[in-house]
Amino acid sequence: MLSLLTLCPPFVILLWYTMVHADGSVYQTWDYFMQHGLQGFNNIWPKPTAVAWKIIACFAAFEAVLQLFLPGKRVEGPISPAGNRPVYKANGLAAYAVTLITYLSLWWFGIFNPAIVYDHLGEIFSALIFGSFVFCIFLYIKGHLVPSSTDSGSSGNIIIDFYWGMELYPRIGKNFDIKVFTNCRFGMMSWAVLAVTYCIKQYEENGKVADSMLVNTTLMLVYVTKFFWWEAGYWNTMDIAHDRAGFYICWGCLVWVPSVYTSPGLYLVNHPVNLGIQLALFILVAGIVCIYVNYDCDRQRQEFRRTNGKCLIWGKAPSKIVASYTTTNGETKSSLLLTSGWWGLSRHFHYVPEILAAFCWTLPALFNHFLPYFYVVFLTILLFDRAKRDDDRCRSKYGKYWKLYCDKVPYRIVPGIY
């Protein structure tokens, strides 16, 4: 935890500097530090500026207003370990559409040039690093003094509490859910906004957009669109329903997502690649197929839960295991574990197309440098770790029923391999 707390912030700046000022070459950055030492790092770290703070504040305020005031369907989340059931307003897709339309309109009518965001990107990332760290301190203090629900508590270790978080469902007032804002409306929304920004910047610089950038931007936007289409389902996942609001989730979504997840597009701004129609279409179609399979995996599980197992999976009645478990307050409840469809191939098969989709929107950068593929490597490590944590949690929750499930679906992620 201490390693991540101390190393992640400077890595964000190193990644930005290497992509923008060192031609995407890790070797060039390494050579720079060999010549200038630690002082060199101080030289390249951009200082937060008033422009950066204004851009962040306007974006955050705009998304907060949309989250609070756009109409949306009332959605209930899963019952928490302490017996609480969070209630959300599902207006993410509307907020996503309003955000992109507004951003593109500001550019089209000459009111605001998104290239300014790119030009001040280092300062924006620097401001986000410090501002989000302060925000996490606020969450730590809030969790101690005024928790929003009984799903909160301290481990007794300040580092663990700060890193993992104090509260499961922190809110400001009754309606403003902090994790929905950090994870969805700031983190995922900034991914889409920056993808469009990089595309516009390349157009402003070169008078055209390379097919490689078009493929990268299109696939990332399709993925983020899928996310907001399925946002209510995301509220049932480990990020929201099990991981507390601390540095890991909140700083990660506020800083790591906009900086690292968008990095393949950032590289392509100054490295346009001409793929040709055939290769571009092949990568585009392959990426869209991967994103669809990832969506269909989540759709199958969501439909299975919604109908209490009374649905069709690949045209047949689903196979399942009825698992009982005991809650923290001593109640005995049951859950259905799906063992057919995509979920019969492996226990976390949906991670396979997600990793492959990330590879597809990075592939337009080709293989001149390794760094554009850092996100794919990071995502693979993240999802493999998440699969293990989820398995450990389910093993503890379901006991013998989880063993039955693992016997029926023996592979954790990759069918036949792992």
TrEMBL record:
Top-level taxon: Eukaryota
Membrane topology: Multi-pass membrane protein
Locations listed in the record: Endoplasmic reticulum membrane
Single GO term (MF): 7-dehydrocholesterol reductase activity
Biological process annotations from GO: brassinosteroid biosynthetic process; cholesterol biosynthetic process
TM ranges: 51-72, 93-112, 124-141, 245-269, 275-295
Keywords, sorted A to Z: Cholesterol biosynthesis, Cholesterol metabolism, Endoplasmic reticulum, Lipid biosynthesis, Lipid metabolism, Membrane, NADP, Oxidoreductase, Signal, Steroid biosynthesis, Steroid metabolism, Sterol biosynthesis, Sterol metabolism, Transmembrane, Transmembrane helix
GO CC, any one term: endoplasmic reticulum membrane
EC number annotated for this UniProt entry: 1.3.1.21
Main localization, broad class: endoplasmic reticulum
PROSITE patterns xrefs: STEROL_REDUCT_1 (PS01017), STEROL_REDUCT_2 (PS01018)
Cleaved signal peptide residues: 1-22
Family annotation (PANTHER family): 7-DEHYDROCHOLESTEROL REDUCTASE (PTHR21257:SF38), DELTA(14)-STEROL REDUCTASE (PTHR21257)
Entry's family note: Belongs to the ERG4/ERG24 family.
Name under which the protein is recorded: 7-dehydrocholesterol reductase
Protein source organism: Tetracentron sinense
